[in-house]
Amino acid sequence: KNIKKYFPIHKGLLNRTVGQVKAVDDVTLSIRKGETFGLVGESGCGKSTFGRVLLRLQSATGGEVLFKGQDIHSLGTKELRKLREEMQIIFQDPFGSLNPRFLVKDIIGEPLRIHRKMSPREVEARVVELMELVGLDASRRNRYPHEFSGGQRQRIGIARAIALNPQFIVADEAVSALDVSVQSQVINLLMKLQKELGLTFLFIAHGLNIVRHISDRVGVMYLGKLVEVAETEELFALPLHPYTAALLSAIPKPTPRRKQDRIVLQGDVPSPANPPSGCRFHTRCPIAQDRCRQQEPLLEEALPGRSVACHFPLLPPQQ
Ligand code: SF4
Ligand code: MG
């Protein structure tokens, strides 16, 4: 609820604070138990920061993160430890996120040793089980990460993330570094695990095409703001925000589109340290008007179950 994460900007020899980057600026969102919520936007829009704040890997500047009704930013050390078992993250880089000097069985088994105080034998048995669950050959558990391909390493990261039976997982660009063919294998694995283990996912990606297959609902972020939320198929069929339409029109599609879908973005994303007035998208929006430069649009329901932050959403013509 109303999540804000601001980073101070320091300058000069005295390291004075000269401003702040509003990486996440007042985002309210509910993720339903058992769903996959896809969160998309260009680099620097705040989606990773948002994911990290949800897990309390970073503290919020403002707002509340409610997990099963409890504000996780008010938890003490002991409760936080318990929370760490229930919420996990899968990182983008399957190369950088695995310690190269650890055997795979130790990487996957680490959370079990730390949180469950299992004996080495129990850890090993659970590691074998986890490796099989994510489609890895468990007989290779005594090897090092560099002996595995990118897709296999991502499976190792996934096995470690699910080791403690978490309920909520943030997958931060979990497939972005992989080849397209491997991407769909890993996405299929995540969907299988979700079904079998009853997981809830926040699936972060920069492109809409990656989230389409896996997500029940999708949220689009732009410069620290959530600008649209919808059921996945509805969003693809009818984007209401001009930015969503622009992201969609960047995906090659064989069938002809509606005229309003053909939006090409002009210019770069403005700096989050100095976002444009009013609607932050107005500097790049092809249909911006005076009101957009002055008044900030709020995320509001424009159609049943569809929220959009735009003064002039791309609604279908009235019957
Ligand atoms: Fe474009 Fe205005 Fe809507 Fe912002 S509020 S997306 S500038 S039409
Ligand atoms: Mg990121």
From TrEMBL:
What InterPro entries would the database entry show?
Answer: AAA+_ATPase, ABC_transp_ATP-bind, ABC_transporter-like_ATP-bd, ABC_transporter-like_CS, Oligopep_ABC_C, P-loop_NTPase
User: By its UniProt entry, which Gene3D superfamilies does this protein fall under?
Assistant: P-loop containing nucleotide triphosphate hydrolases (3.40.50.300)
Q: Where is the ABC transporter domain?
A: 1-248
Record GO biological process: peptide transport; transmembrane transport
Q: Which domain of life is it from?
A: Bacteria
Q: Which SUPFAM superfamilies match?
A: P-loop containing nucleoside triphosphate hydrolases (SSF52540)
A single GO molecular-function term is: ATP binding
UniProtKB keywords: ATP-binding, Nucleotide-binding, Transport
Cited NCBIfam families: oligo_HPY
Q: Which family does it belong to?
A: Belongs to the ABC transporter superfamily.
Q: What is this protein called?
A: Peptide ABC transporter substrate-binding protein
Instruction: Supply the source organism's classification.
Output: Bacteria, Bacillati, Bacillota, Bacilli, Bacillales
